Amino acid sequence: MAAKKNNSTPEIVELTCIQCPIGCQLKVTVDGSDVSVTGNTCPRGEIYGKQEVTSPVRTVTSTVPVDNGIIARAPVRTAAPIPKQSIMDVMEAVHSLKLTAPVTLGEVLISNVAGTGSDLIATRDIPAAS
Amino acid sequence: MSANNLPIEKHELVIVGGGPAGLAAAASARESGVRDILIIERDSQPGGILNQCIHNGFGLHTFGEELTGPEYAARYIRRVQEENIPCRLGTIVTDISRDRRITCISREGVSLIDAGAVILAMGCRERPRGALSIPGYRPAGIYTAGTAQRLMNIEGKKIGKEVVILGSGDIGLIMARRMTLEGAHVSAVAELMSYSGGLKRNIVQCLQDYGIPLLLSHTVTNIHGRDHIEGVTIQEVDEHRSPIPGTEKYYPCDTLLLSCGLLPENELSRAAGITMNRVTGGPDVDESLSTDIPGVFACGNVLHVHDLVDYVSEEAARAGRSAARFLSSGQDLEKDTAAVVLKAEGGVRYTVPQYIHPSGMDDKLTVRFRVDNNYRDRYVSVYFGSERISRQKKRVLAPGEMEQVVLTKEKLLSYPDTKEITIKLED
Ligand SMILES: Cc1cc2nc3c(=O)[nH]c(=O)nc-3n(C[C@H](O)[C@H](O)[C@H](O)COP(=O)(O)OP(=O)(O)OC[C@H]3O[C@@H](n4cnc5c(N)ncnc54)[C@H](O)[C@@H]3O)c2cc1C
Questions:
Q1: What average pLDDT is seen over chain B?
Q2: Quick one: B349 and B412 in the same domain?
């Protein structure tokens, strides 16, 4: 849903603001480098609308298999939100991982995962099965 | 020794359930001076349902950062370990008596514990699919969303490739994204109601991000396949939630996930004779989160279903403090005064607590409630008897979001004749 910025005619993207439960319907108009938001009822909506259309980011979470651990999967996430268009690249890197216990919460599993500038980290301690 | 010759252990405080509620209750009871605390957890690990909730979005209120479920749980597990509070794992509580004798079973056998105080923190479970009356066989490939979540995230099992989800609760939404990222195709999320009970954020980030259609006012009316599910029929429903003839559409699938709501897990409470609330499915409690059995408290999803774990932790901390107070005073002091009853009316489905002893209140008391529909621009009004003492304008109210009002002890004591407090929505 990312906007194409090189269009000559302005592009209008409609989205729901998720900054609070009100859920304003935003209209974001992209005209070259000019981005404007209507439909928002507070400044957070404007910031969200602009970010969501120009450079949306998401935190990716998943699990990877662990050998010899007390459970079979280790939960993982990107340490910071990454560009939305890189989600599937990150998942590909996640799918290639296989760990051996012990795993430590916060441990960097892949640094700069899929070139996003963010690390992939473990989100749970997995002690080795004794 | 008990009648059947089992030795009886004694503990000051026993907490049933080692999820976020049980862990936070333990930490706060210790902070309030309780020395001898035992947490009993049936699973092999503490942390409760958070262990399988690997997505982010936990702890924004408590820690000011977005953690995943396991990370949030780890903070409380660490606190409990640092305090050397024992957590007896792999042990299930099967009975609690009125005089707080607890029966539990583990691999080692049955044991009995006499507790000075008990905190119920057993959490909730999903509405079982037997309760959902869909015609057709019950072939393999049908899971509750939470079961699928556990199978995938903890046990590493493969679930399926072509998925339909019935119900747009948060767990269903989260699982739609999770399965998509694992390479499955989620063809639709069908929701009986005309709105989703799930958080907006999850609708955007779990469905819209991946182009998964949310079919509002739709339900599954038939399940196809004998041994393994092969497809479902989805039909539109009218305003009375009856399927509209002619709107049937066939969706081939090998997996159907049911995300149709949660129920507090209260078999133990009911068997103990605790007075239960018909709306919440949890015990009726007072301002200290005490049930009507003295010394037995409840918090977390066993009391009422929460969508934010932060509120679970906060509520559980209150239960921990209350148990500490009960143990040090040896009785319920506040129970000397008559209780003020809290009534939910005009769009408010229930309140927690359900009654208050004004003398036992802290300076401020947060009353949590849920509404029965989507509302815009309504006032949340509080009445002491027939007098409205406050109202607060809300731009939106939704069934999926827990709401709250704060009552002050000072105010309540200045209306000593109050017998009833009503919380309702007004234009
Ligand atoms: C399947 C599912 C998925 C969820 N997903 C989300 C989500 O994605 N995001 C979110 O914010 N919230 C989610 N929730 C809500 C979540 O449960 C709460 O936010 C929070 O975890 C509730 O904490 P709790 O301690 O009350 O319950 P729980 O976390 O359920 O913990 C209760 C504990 O008690 C134990 N127990 C129960 N009965 C006994 C017994 N008789 N003897 C011994 N131990 C017992 C259980 O094993 C469990 O560990 C989900 C709930 C469910 C049921």
A1: 92
A2: yes
Among the partner-chain residues B54, B201, B398, the one whose CB lies closest to the CB of A61 is: B54
Domain that holds residue B345: 335-427
Angstrom distance (rounded) from CA B320 to CA B120: 11
Question: Considering only CA atoms, which of B31, B33, B27 is closest in space to residue B79?
Answer: B27
- Give per-residue pLDDT as tens, B200-233: 889 999 999 999 999 999 999 999 998 999 999 9
Chain B residues within 8 A (CB-CB) of chain A?
44-45, 51, 54-56, 66-71, 74, 152-156, 178, 181-182, 200-201, 203-205, 208-209, 395-396, 398, 401
Half-sphere exposure of B227 (CA within 13 A, CB side): 0
Q: Is B318 in the pocket of ligand 1 (CB under 6 A)?
A: no
Number of domains in chain B: 3
Q: Are residues B422 and B328 in the same domain?
A: no
Separation of B363 CA from ligand 1 center, angstroms? 30
The answer to whether residues B232 and B211 belong to one domain is yes
Residue B88 within a domain? yes
Summarize the confidence of residues B172-181 as an average pLDDT. 96
Same domain assignment for residues B219 and B133: yes
Q: How many CB atoms neighbour CB B225 within 10 A? A: 20
For residues B173 and B287, membership in a common domain is answered with no
pTM for the model: 0.92
* Any domain includes B1: no
Largest CA distance in chain B: 68
% pLDDT > 90, chain B:
80
Residues in chain B: 427
